[in-house]
Every structure is written in C-alpha cells, then in structure tokens.
Amino acid sequence: MTVPDIPGCFSAGGTVDEALLNAIEAIECHLEGLLQDNELIPVPQAIESHRLKTEYKNGTWAIVDVDISKLTRKAKRVNITIPERLLETIDKYACDQGLSRSKFLAQAAADYMSKSK
C-alpha cells in the first residue's frame, strides 16, 4: 500500500484491513522522521489529484485517520492576541469541521507554510 501524500511511505499486510492498520503505523513513523529532521509535514491532497497520476491509475483508494498529536513534538501552550470577530469565525469553522481551535490553527499554519515553499 502506497501513501501518495508522503513520498517513500508504504505498508503491506495479509488483508486490506491489516494493510490499512500498518499504513497508519508507517505514516506515524515517517512523520516522526520528518519532525526529527525539522521538516514540514506534507499537506494531504485530494484523492482526485492523485488519481490523475499514471503510477496510481489502477489503484484502490482508502483513507486512514492519523492523529499527529501523538508525534514527538509536545504541544506548547501559547497566548496570542486575535480580533474577537475572527476568533468567533475560527471557532465556528473548527467546530463545523470537528476540530478544536488549537488543532485547526496548527493545521492552518502548517498548510499555509507548506504552500509558501
């Protein structure tokens, strides 16, 4: 099983379910290495963007959920100042997406920085 969003990351298993579980472990290990090397975590792309690539033409697609909060870097509490109206908008959007404010802001910052490279 190949993880298109993370070049060089793959897994295998005796069944599809086992391969998916192993994919989660492979992704976590790969991301650990990126963090230890002070590299940015790649931003996941839509499946459609990968399906157009010839190397994935006949692939079967699946999505796994990886909790990156378990990775090496510890969370650090920070105090920021942000306009109240913007904060309300952030909180509503995060809630609608099933995310905490902190998780949304961390993901948004990572997405922004990866796109500016």
Rg, rounded, reads 17 Å
The whole-number mean of residue pLDDT values reads: 85
The number of distinct helices, counting runs of at least 4 residues, comes to 4
Weakly predicted, low-confidence segments: none
Keywords, separated by commas or semicolons:
single chain; 117 residues; mainly alpha; Double Stranded RNA Binding Domain; Arc Repressor Mutant; 2 domains; 4 helices; 46% helix; 0% strand
Give a topology summary.
Layout: H1 16-36, H2 47-51, H3 84-96, H4 101-115
Helix pairs in contact: 3-4
What does this structure look like?
The protein is mainly α and about 120 residues long. It folds into two domains: about 1-70, Double Stranded RNA Binding Domain; about 75-115, Arc Repressor Mutant, CATH 1.10.1220. The chain is about 45% helix and about 0% strand. It has helices at about 15-35, 45-50, 85-95, 100-115. The radius of gyration is 17 Å and the shape is globular. The mean pLDDT is about 85.
Brief account:
The protein contains four helices and no strands. It is an all-alpha fold.
